[in-house]
Design goal:
261 residues; 8 strands; globular; binds 1,3-dihydroxyacetonephosphate
Length: 261
Amino acid sequence: MRKKIVAGNWKMNLSAEEAMALANELKQKIDHQLDTGGPRQNGALPRILLFPPYVYLSGLIEVFRNYEGLSIGVQNIYQEEKGAYTGEVSPLMVRSMGGTHTLIGHSERRMHFNEDDELLAKKTALALKNGLIPVYCCGEMLPERETGKHFQVVAEQLKKGVFWMKEEEAGNIIIAYEPVWAIGTGQTASPDQAQEMHAYIRQLIADQYSNKMADRMTILYGGSCNAKNAAELFAKEDVDGGLIGGASLKADDFFRIIQSF
Ligand code: 13P
């Protein structure tokens, strides 16, 4: 069985006070669900990942210290373990704090920080070496979809960023399909569009590695996923959960997404 995951990417939002309030509100909701069974059975919550800004990492790790089903990660890592790189944060540091995951190749990093697939491949390998699970983001821009190049673009991103790795390494990665035209726009990929791309990605994994690995790998959808559309998206066979931006900043909305399987 593939892992079902709901991940929250807080991006560069929230003050310290707001971040801790959101974490504690979320914790209360999880506690309530685990205590009462909520609308679902005990233990039936999907795995939850939170990607706060670096500066809130230790605070969130503290809040969720004993929560096996919830892990804390970061939105980016530097591509070296240590050294004279003023202002950067390495995977070794994140791991040593208790962080377990890192986003790699989010479209905002590709766009605003010129991160290309070669750099992202290096980051992915270094994350794995340091015991962090990469959530590798891929997705096409609007003109690429409009001209029918979306499959090609995603295949290329995965080929350069992930598929050069051996099966035992690549098998630890989580993939997030985030069509750039859907990020922060309120325009979501339809469930059929998401399913079509996820099935395509799974087939790429099967061709590159094996059916077994393709069956096992978690592929998340991201891009204006919210409390209203999550259930329809998550109902699709190859959509194993979501990477949520805006809607992860409100505990109520994010928790409703968590309950959408
Ligand atoms: P939105 O959910 O705000 O569209 O952001 C998606 C995203 O970029 C998650 O990484």
